[in-house]
Every structure is written in C-alpha cells, then in structure tokens.
Design goal:
alpha/beta; Vcp-like ATPase, Chain A, domain 2; Rossmann fold; seven-stranded mixed sheet; four-stranded antiparallel sheet; 10 helices; 21% strand
C-alpha cells in the first residue's frame, strides 16, 4: 500500500488533491464551452503562432497585433474568432495537453509531447494511479503524468536543484495541476519516501544506479521507464536492469513527422524533430532461481551463442596444448 507523505515530510505542500478545483481552474476537472475567468486559453494567430494565457477580469493581453481585454474574452464560446483593438483576428481555443507541456517556462530541456504521451502509455497510467518521477526539471512531463492520473491519482516528483524545483512548482500551479502533485527537493540517491507506487519514471543521467530505489518504491509487477539521450547510457542501463532482475525490457525511439496541410499538394514538412531520446521500459520480477529466463529471446540467443563460441575457443586451446605435448618442443632446424 502506498505510504502517503506527512506534513512533516513535505512542509511546502499547502493543500490536498482538491487544490486545483479550489484555485478556480475548472478546465482541469471538466470541459467548458466558454472561456472562464481564472482558466487558461490559447489564442492562435492566422500564421499559426500560439499564446497561452490565464484569463483574469480587469487584465489586458498585449501582442504585436494589438491588445485583448480579458473581460472581452471571458464568456466567449471556445472556438470563436476574436479581434484585437486593431482589428486583427485570433482564434480562442481550449489549450491542449501539448500546449501545456511545450509552453511552460523552462530552465532545462523539456520532454517532447510525442515522448510524454508514449510514456503515459508505457507506464500504463490511469486515473487513481500513484506515480513517482525523479528529475522534475521544468515540470513538462510532470504535467502529462498529473493529467493522466487526475483527479483521483497523484504524482510524487523529486528534483535536487532548487531553481528547477521552484520553477516546476510555478508551472504546475499555473496549469492547475499542483493539487495532484507532491514535490520533494531531494536526490533520488536518498531513496523515495513512497512505497507501493504503480509506476516509477527516471529522467536522470545514470538511471541504472538507482534501480534498487526503484524496486523498493514500486508495487510488485509495477511499471518502470527511463528516458536517456545516448546509446552508451542505454547500454549501461540495460546491464543494470539485467543485474537487478528486471524483465519485459523494451527499448524504443519515437520519430514524429508532420505533413503540410495542403490537400492538393500533400507532402512532409521540410524539417522534423528527429532523435530526442531512447525510451527504456521494464518490469521488476521476483525469481530467486533464474531471473534470466525472463529476458528477451534475442538476448537469450545472443548469450547462448557467446557461450558456444567460448566453448569452441576453449576446446581449440585444449587441442593445441595436447598436440604440443605430443610433438615435444619445436626446434629450429640447423642450416
């Protein structure tokens, strides 16, 4: 059973899971047909530029196309064309999860929406789940995790840097999801305060060093994933997963290509976001006899081939040694 942090464990937390609703962020708990006071909206230009703003009565939003009074936007149907005082049109929309992830203030590189969405899938998250994240960064992925487990679930996120911790907290509060997140300014090396979590995600440089902490925090058969940018980091993590009795291991890379929205001339965009990271996922297993039996068939075939090659080399070495003993020492013939 998951151990919830006490107020002594987390003095910075001011409220429980209902904080987002109490702060007047109605879009978190329900969709609305009109722009609400206190809610986030997207304003999109005809050229595709997007502005994420929080509506508050009495305030004004300024752009190079003119300004918009919040009072004029509040109550407007979402999906409506609105105009600045200069007459320029913008489209008023409800923000998507991708908007929230990509438009947060950041100190670090955020995880791209394509990776964040697949991580939610890989971690098998649903409303009510308890998930631990190490490496909060600017909070981009934390937003996606909290979105997936809300309203009944909770994210426990760990960040060692104070500047990242404060920025992520501000970002989560702005999008109305701080009420579903417990934040800890603490290194993953110290372990997690929770036990029995449904999933654990690591966004740290050397995730393989912290698999014992992962096992102690996960429920039996829970879900683990990590995102690393380089091949050698993947290799190190794979070796650690095998030593740590993890199974159902998968390594994946996601490439997303957009297309030009022109029906008569459909073709890919000229540029695309290529490699962003390797997603490694696994499940902890309990098998005191032979945990290696749960490795992939490719891994077992490779291991068997290496063992067979070692036997051949040993046999050849033995035969050469025997032949040398039978023939006696080799002597250079005299001229």
């Amino acid at each position: 059973m998951l151990t919830m942090p006490t107020s002594e464990d987390q003095p910075t937390e001011q409220a429980g899971p209902q904080l987002a609703i109490e702060r007047g962020k109605p879009w978190v708990s329900a969709h609305h047909n009109t722009a609400q006071d206190g809610a986030l909206v997207i304003l999109t230009t005809t050229g595709g530029k997007r502005y994420l703003i929080s509506l508050h009565r009495g305030q004004t939003f300024h752009t190079n196309l003119g300004h918009f009074r919040h009072d004029d936007l509040i109550g407007q149907p979402l999906g409506t064309t609105v105009h600045s005082q200069l007459g320029h049109p913008l489209l008023l929309l409800e923000p998507s999860l991708s908007d929230l992830i990509t438009r947060v203030k950041r100190n670090t590189q955020i995880i791209y929406p394509k990776d964040a969405a697949y991580l939610v899938h890989r971690l098998s998250l649903r409303s009510g789940d308890q998930v631990i994240e190490a490496g909060t960064g600017s909070g981009g992925l934390t937003i996606a995790l909290a979105w997936a487990v809300a309203p009944a679930g909770r994210v426990y996120t760990y960040e060692v840097r104070s500047d990242n911790y404060q920025l992520a907290r501000t970002n989560l509060e702005r999008v109305g999801l701080l009420g579903n997140v417990s934040m800890h300014q603490q290194s993953v090396a110290e372990g997690f305060r929770q036990q029995g979590a449904d999933a654990v995600f690591l966004d740290v440089r050397t995730p393989g060093r912290y698999l014992q902490q992962v096992r102690e925090a996960l429920r039996p058969g829970g879900f683990f994933a990590a995102l690393v940018p380089t091949v050698n980091q993947v290799i190190d993590l794979l070796a650690a997963l095998e030593r740590g009795s993890f199974a159902d291991i998968a390594i994946e890379e996601l490439l997303l290509r957009k297309y030009k929205v022109v029906p008569d001339r459909l073709r890919p965009d000229d540029a695309m976001v290529g490699h962003t990271g390797f997603l490694v996922s696994a499940r902890p297993v309990i098998d005191p006899t032979d945990p290696g039996r749960w490795l992939s068939e490719d891994r077992k075939r490779y291991t068997a081939r290496k063992e067979f090659e070692a036997k051949i080399e040993a046999e050849e070495a033995r035969r050469l040694a025997e032949k040398g003993e039978q023939d006696g020492p080799y002597r250079m013939p005299l001229p």
